[in-house]
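Thread amino acids onto this structure.
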């Protein structure tokens, strides 16, 4: 049985193959699909630590407000891992770092708790610039 464009898309993200993700999107896969756990693709790309795929999904119109079941957006996960590169990409597309998850924590709260001072500074700089 041939895989659907959505299956191809998830395979590409899970195996961090940007060319497979591009092909799946060309074939009509929905950039705002969610996995069986209702996790948005942006969060899956972040979990796989693949900035190029994350950037591609954003360029193709991925919903920057997408959240997990615990109301975490991609920046909550980035903050947990302290990934400055992905934070810059997401902030550049307007992902909100002031939104609270189910536990009342913002991405900045998480970065601060985990002592990722450079990331906290990035959030504060973005807030000062008024980009959020």
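Threaded sequence (132 positions):
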């Amino acid at each position: 049985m041939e895989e659907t464009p959505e299956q191809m898309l998830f395979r590409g993200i899970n195996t961090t193959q940007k060319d497979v993700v591009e092909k799946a999107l060309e074939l009509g896969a929905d950039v705002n699909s969610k996995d069986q756990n209702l996790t948005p693709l942006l969060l899956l790309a972040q979990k796989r630590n693949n900035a190029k795929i994350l950037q591609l999904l954003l360029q193709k119109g991925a919903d920057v407000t997408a959240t997990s079941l615990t109301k975490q957006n991609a920046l909550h996960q980035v903050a947990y891992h302290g990934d400055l590169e992905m934070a810059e990409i997401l902030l550049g597309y307007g992902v909100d770092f002031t939104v609270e998850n189910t536990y009342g924590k913002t991405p900045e709260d998480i970065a601060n708790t985990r002592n990722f001072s450079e990331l906290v500074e990035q959030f504060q700089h973005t807030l000062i610039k008024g980009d959020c």
